[in-house]
Sequence to fold (224 residues):
Amino acid sequence: MARHPALRTFSRHVMKPLAFWLLALPGLWLGWQWSLLLTGQAHDLGFNPIETTHRFLGDTAIRILLISLAVTPIRDLTRWGPVMMIRRRIGLAAFWYALLHILAYLVLDLFIEAGTVTGALAALWRDVTDRIYITLGMSAFVLLIPLAITSFNRMQRWLGGQRWQGLHRLVYPLAILAVFHHGFMVKGNQLGPWVHGGILAVLLGYRLVGMIARKSPHPSARAS
Fold:
């Protein structure tokens, strides 16, 4: 199906560009808000723009990561294979928003406070070792890096299909780490982490049920 000329045209000229701009919208909105702030105009970043930026980028990264995990169930339930053509683009968007989330924390928070790159990195190390939510978040990002690096066709061919698939199963533990990072970061019992955790539980549960079903012998096989 993916090799049909009409489907290639639809993917190249409609699906992929549309996915790109939809995924870019949160970043474009944030850049626009910062341009309003820096030019002294009314904006929606609140009284603490740095904290708002951190949380917005982090929430966006988690939500896009969950969307990437939802692509396969959507394909299975709708039987619409072309949706798989944008899964890689969604996963890469999650990586870039996570990277921006960390850079915003490192530059807008730690560097401004420390005044030097060395001081900011030292402060980052202290936070990683002392604050559980930062430990979880950095661990999730470290697992995300090899997935982003190997998301291209050339890397997939170099690794081989089986090794590539095994490596990209890291998305499951990193998604769990990311949701726990969010849960430990927010103050009090807020709804957001529970919603993200519930969605992730459904997506992982779907895969677990499918794996069990594939490993279970077919009824006709048991009867024979």
In short: The two ends are 35 Å apart (CA to CA). The chain has a mean pLDDT of 88. The CA atoms of residues 21 and 53 lie 20 Å apart. The first helix runs from residue 5 to 38.
